[in-house]
Amino acid sequence: MRIALFGYGKMGKMIEKIASERGHDIVARIDVDTPKIDFSNMDVAIDFSMPDAAFANISNCFEHGIPVISGTTGWLKDFDKAVTLCREKEGAFIYASNFSLGVNIFFELNAYLAKMMKNLDQYDVAMEEIHHTQKLDAPSGTAITLAEGIIKNSNYDTWKLGQGDGKEIGITSKRIESVPGTHTVAYNSAVDSIEIKHTAHNRQGFALGAVTAAEWIVGKKGVFTMKDVLNLG
Ligand SMILES: NC(=O)C1=CN([C@@H]2O[C@H](COP(=O)(O)OP(=O)(O)OC[C@H]3O[C@@H](n4cnc5c(N)ncnc54)[C@H](OP(=O)(O)O)[C@@H]3O)[C@@H](O)[C@H]2O)C=CC1
Ligand SMILES: O=C(O)C1=N[C@H](C(=O)O)C[C@H](O)C1
């Protein structure tokens, strides 16, 4: 498969390594100053760039009929526009705030736990995410997906950065040198706490998930999620 990388930073380089090990060709490494992109020479695009760049990259690929795997976080204000354009152009699209198998299992666990806790008013939920100091967005995309999973399955109706209040899920974002990504969801009462936690040990899981999604999407049309790719739930 011929893969174009939009964004060739920490994730772009890890994806190149995993994709090459799986026998794929990296045909383009696109950065902010790439003068001209040859869309005729790629089967799929994988975008791990920057919040301000993602939507333009994704739109450009749809305009040229290229399926897109999108891992960049912090651009979701434009997500609905991307979905509409994908459908208009009969393209193919997967966005995931987190491509790792472990986090996608964690998303399911989070939804299940939220359902169990729904009517137990003595517990308040709180979330913490920890990432490396170069991360541009807060809270993390994964924390937002976890909050959405709780909102869908509980009486909480929104989230906010910092301390939550009543029906708000409070999310604490910490930035610590070189942490790949740690997420904790805690239900706290006066007598105990229940916590679920996912810890990424490195970036390989994210990259493998993105390459797996790219392998899966070629030849398909539509807007999909990692649940479709991984056959979860
Ligand atoms: N969904 C998931 O599973 C995961 C998502 N992420 C997300 O992926 C994104 C990238 O992460 P990471 O690789 O760590 O970040 P990096 O900062 O290491 O890499 C981002 C790269 O994008 C480049 N870039 C800037 N503008 C453009 C543009 N217009 N087009 C293409 N590339 C551009 C940057 O170049 P330059 O430095 O020259 O500006 C840089 O090389 C983040 O949003 C992060 O949150 C990260 C891990 C997992
Ligand atoms: O920026 C990162 O590094 C990561 N970003 C994603 C997010 O915002 O959730 C996924 C992962 O946690 C690493």
TrEMBL record:
The keyword Oxidoreductase applies. Its EC number is 1.17.1.8. It is an enzyme of class 1 (oxidoreductase). Keywords: Oxidoreductase. This is 4-hydroxy-tetrahydrodipicolinate reductase. The gene is dapB.
